[in-house]
Design goal:
This protein is an alpha/beta fold and 312 residues long. It folds into 2 domains: 238 residues, TIM Barrel, CATH 3.20.20.70; 42 residues, no CATH class. The chain contains 10 helices and 13 strands. The strands form 3 sheets. The protein has an 8-stranded mixed β-sheet. Strands 11-13-12 form a 3-stranded antiparallel β-sheet. A two-stranded parallel sheet has the order 3-4.
């Protein structure tokens, strides 16, 4: 399946994740903090990945297996890479609207200079735009965008999309210590975000294992300063700094639930236990997946996470 969950989301309630790029990570960025790991294939040109009907059928199948209490609040495109690189994104969104569940897309916003990307995203009900820094050099250091991308095109894309989008628009800034958490970067980033007029501006920190082990969490004082700067700029800021919980939807097939989820969403130990329990499985299934090399166990900040192991 190319979908998983639903998983508890700090922004969207119960979110049924859709991975429309279910291969080794394909992205226009290679963010130093990415929970999916290093970008395997960095690209700037859109291409088809999965037939929209395949995604539609997988979502229908997963929804049919869920108990009413696990029914999602959103269908969310959060891929193993950048979802707007999928040439069929717009067609897929149109198909999924038949389920009458709001559709969200979490994008790094790097392709918004493309009018077709904007047209595709206009169909979504909720869109999150990544704005980690409004200083070109800082953005380059933290996001490591495709070399041919210009900062001007990025800002122009943000402006054009936000001026016409009629759904719920939010921004998200990931703070990394010593990279983009300085006062100058925060103030310029908040100023840029303000021009987009988002309903909410999220400030997050890397609570899951990052792509680079040199990534560090900002100090609490720095996080609070960021919040105050955003607030003073007139933004409706909200901090995303806590674990979202373990209330995950399951299908009854522990192996599939684990593998489909941890491609794009590292599974914390407490959540893994809940998945195994809900699926009526034995914890041996987790050890078996580790032993076969399909997933790996990683310690991060004193917490255990399970990640998909593409090296095998």
């Amino acid at each position: 399946m190319v979908c998983y969950g639903p998983v508890p989301s700090r922004r969207l309630g119960k979110s049924l994740g859709i991975n429309n790029i279910p291969f080794e990570k394909v992205c226009s960025y290679s963010c130093i903090y990415c929970q999916v790991g290093m970008t395997k294939f960095q690209k700037s040109i859109r291409e088809p990945f999965i037939e929209p009907k395949k995604i539609y059928n997988d979502v229908a199948t997963l929804l049919s297996k869920l108990q009413h209490v696990d029914f999602p609040d959103f269908l969310t495109f959060v891929a193993n890479g950048e979802p707007t690189l999928d040439l069929n994104l717009g067609k897929t969104i149109r198909l999924l609207k038949e389920f009458r569940i709001p559709i969200a897309v979490i994008t790094n916003a790097s392709l918004l200079f493309d009018v077709q990307v904007r047209e595709d995203l206009f169909q979504a009900d909720w869109v999150s735009l990544k704005v980690d820094s409004a200083i070109p050099g800082v953005r380059k250091r933290i996001n490591r965008p495709f070399p041919a991308f210009s900062f001007y095109d990025y800002c122009e894309g943000l402006t054009r999309f936000s001026s016409l989008y009629e759904g719920v628009l939010v921004s998200e800034t990931m703070l990394v210590e010593g990279v983009n958490d300085m006062k100058e970067s925060l103030e310029k980033t908040a100023t840029l975000i303000k021009t987009l007029n988002p309903e909410k501006s999220y400030i997050s920190i890397p609570i899951r294992p990052p792509a680079l082990n040199t990534v560090r969490l900002p100090e609490e004082e720095t996080i609070n300063r960021a919040y105050q700067i955003y607030h003073e700029k007139g933004l409706n800021a909200e901090l995303l700094v806590a674990f979202e919980g373990v209330n995950t939807g399951c299908t009854g097939n522990a192996k599939d639930d684990i593998l489909n989820m941890c491609v794009v969403h590292p599974i914390r130990e407490e959540t893994m236990s809940e998945i195994v329990k809900k699926d009526g499985a034995d914890y041996y299934i987790v050890e078996k997946l580790i032993g076969s090399g399909q997933i790996k166990r990683v310690d991060y900040k004193g917490k255990m996470f399970y990640l998909r192991n593409f090296s095998k």
